[in-house]
Amino acid sequence: MEKSGTQLIAEITEAVKKCGEIMKNADRSEANIEQKAGHANFVTAYDKLIQKTIQGLLYEILPEAVFVGEEEDVHAQIEKGYSFIVDPIDGTTNFIKDLKQSAISVALLKDGKQYIGVCYNPYLDEVFTAEKGCGAFLNGQPIHVSNSPLEQAIVGFGTSPYNPERWDKTFEMVKDYMAKALDVRRMGSAVIDLCNVACGRYEIFFEMQLSPWDYAAASLVVKEAGGIVTMLDGETPLTFDKPCSVFARNMD
Questions:
Q1: Are residues 64 and 83 in the same domain?
Q2: Tens of each residue's pLDDT in the chain, 252 residues
Q3: Are residues 89 and 168 in the same domain?
C-alpha cells in the first residue's frame, strides 16, 4: 500500500533528526574541509557523512525513489516517479564557523513536481514541513506568511558567493531594499531564510543563483504557508533540474 503524505513526512522527519544529531555533535577538528569550485564553496567530511546517512534512511522509506544530493558528481533524472532532492548541510560555511545557522533539507518530488518538503535546523530543533495542498507547519503547528507591507518588511538575501558576476546586481538590490524596507539580513542559509519567510519572520528573500537542493523543500514550505516563490522576475516558476534565481515573498 502506498504511503500517505502524513506518513512520509513523519518518516522523513525522523531521518533528518537522526542526521541533525550528527551535525550538533560534530568535531570540527575532524571536519576535513575541502574547497570546491567557486568562491567560498566548501565541503566537509560531515556534509558527506550526513548525505550518505540520509540517503540510506530515505531509501528505506521509499526504495523506488531516485536520490539527488548536493555532494554528488552525477545527478539522477527527476521527471518520472519519486525523487529526493537533498542538501545535507545548507550553510556549510556557517557550520565550519560554528554559527549554528545551518539546516538539513529534504524535498520529495513526484513526476518532477514538488510533493513534500522537510527542513530541519537542529540547533533550534525547528522542523518545517509541508505537503502539497496541505499547508505548512513548524514543529507540527500551522504557520503562515506575514501580512506586513514592504516598509515594515525584513528582507533576507543571499550573495550567490560562488558566482562573482552576480555580486554587483545583488548589492544594488540590497541597497534599494535598504531604502524601502525595515531592514535587511544575510544569514548564509537559503533554507533557513526561506523558512523564515514561511513563518513570518521575514517578508522577502532573494538570491541571484541557487541550486535545487537549496530551495526544493523550503520553497514548498513558503508556498504552503501562503507565500509566493518564483524566479527573480516574479513570474517564472522555479526549476528543479538546474540552478535558478529565487524570489520569495509574503504577498504580491
A1: yes
A2: 789 999 999 999 999 999 999 999 988 766 666 655 444 445 678 888 999 999 999 999 999 999 998 776 556 678 889 999 999 999 988 998 999 999 999 999 999 999 999 999 999 999 999 999 999 999 999 999 999 999 999 999 999 888 889 999 999 999 999 999 999 999 999 999 999 999 999 999 999 999 999 999 999 999 999 999 999 999 999 999 999 999 999 986
A3: no
11 and 100 inside one domain = yes
Q: Looking at the structure, tell me whether residues 40 and 117 fall in a common domain.
A: yes
The whole-model pTM stands at: 0.93
User: In what helix (H) or strand (E) does residue 46 lie, and over which residues does it extend?
Assistant: helix 45-61
What distance in Å separates the CA atoms of residue 121 and residue 192, rounded to the nearest whole number? 8
In which order are the strands placed within the sheet that holds 244-249? 183-185, 154-157, 204-210, 244-249, 228-230
Q: CA–CA separation, 92 vs 50, rounded Å?
A: 12
SS percent in the chain: helix, strand, coil, step 5? 35, 25, 40
Same domain, 138 and 13: yes
Number of domains in the chain: 2
Residues 127 and 173 occupy one common structural domain = no
Residue 65: which residues within 8 A CB-CB, separation 6 or more? 58, 59, 81, 82, 83, 84, 108
Q: What is the CATH number of the domain that holds 24?
A: 3.30.540.10
